[in-house]
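Write out the 3D structure for:
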Amino acid sequence: MNFASAVETINKLLRKIQPQTFCSSWIRQHAPDVYRFIQKNVRAESGGIDWDRSTRALDRKLQRRWRASRRGRYQACFRDKRSVEIILNKYHDKLYTFLSPADASDKQVRDIISIALVRIAQHGNVVARQEISQLLRHTIDEWIEQYPKISCWEGLDDMIQERIEGCIRRYRYSGTFIGYLFKTLEYAGRGIRPITAYSLDDHVYSGKKRRADRVAQHSETAEIVIYGRS
């Protein structure tokens, strides 16, 4: 058995049995040989079985049925640099993907790195949360420049950080974390008015008046009202 055949076996079982959801226990019950193969050969850098890699390889429609175990997810905060450094050292030459991924392969590596750090952060590792937050800010800054739907977040650093931390806490689905973050910012940004820098030399309406002219006009009107009341 190899990884590809293990994934295909799970695909076939899911299509045949059609469970609404499945988890590691479901795989162990219905495909014990596959479970043992994954347990032995598909390991995360930080330890344990890398279920994200396994489920991410499934047919996309079937991925959505995955429900990871919640055990140990709400632990007290702690700092552990070693587990974070293992990931960063392994993918040191690929961290540029958070700033400027060149192709689909780079985006896939970015997904692997982000999910690995997010999973560690979900167990309370403050170092992992800080590291993934910093990396994601590079990605979001690129989105702000490239995508009009995300541009409204420009200048809202505190709100962006809140959304990042919220996504880290809530992320469960074993698809791409980057895609989940993008959609979260897109939907949440619909009620945000973009912060736009205006120049007093900009022309308004028909183009005959400058913004400075309108400011002067409003100032004169305000003075008339004030003096009139006095």
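DSSP finds eleven helices and two strands in the chain.
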